[in-house]
Amino acid sequence: MKQAETQNTFRAMPSFSQGASDDIMFLRTDANQELIYDSATYRLDAVRKLLDFASTISTDKSGVSSDVSMVTDAAGILVTDAMAILDGLMKNRRPQ
Questions:
Q1: Where on the tree of life does the source sit, at the highest rank (predicted)?
Q2: What pLDDT score was predicted for residue 14?
Q3: How far is CA 88 from CA 14, 38, 47, 83, 92, in A?
Q4: Other C-beta atoms within 10 Å of 88: how many?
Q5: Which residues contact 62 (CB under 8 A, 6 or more apart)?
């Protein structure tokens, strides 16, 4: 791709998703909209599964609070990613 074609094609994911002090994760805004949607819903489904798992851990009562914390951290990252992806999808659908 030529540089002119790549301008404004990639949008940085939110800083919470980066996991670094610099932007390294990006959403390709000109990708197929169905694929963008699938990517977001895949992450939301992963969050649902993590939260289902966390609910079984919290009822286990075996003192695994650090495990629940790791699950909720992962869920937070996935939700942030999914929301950014869906936001990018909506911005592509709006008339400029």
A1: Bacteria
A2: 85
A3: 11, 13, 20, 9, 6
A4: 22
A5: none
Domain spans, the chain: 3-93
Task: Report the candidate in 94, 57, 59 with the shortest Cα–Cα distance to residue 75.
Answer: 57
pLDDT, tens digit (0-9, with 9 covering 90-100), for 54-78: 777 655 556 555 667 778 888 888 8
The total number of residues shown for the chain amounts to 96
Strands annotated E in 4-53: 10-12, 26-28
Q: What's the CA gap between 37 and 33, in Å, rounded?
A: 6
Q: Contact, 81 vs 47, CB < 8 A? A: no
Give the mean pLDDT of 70-89: 84
Any idea what the Cα angle at residue 40 is, between residues 20 and 79, rounded to 5°?
Answer: 55
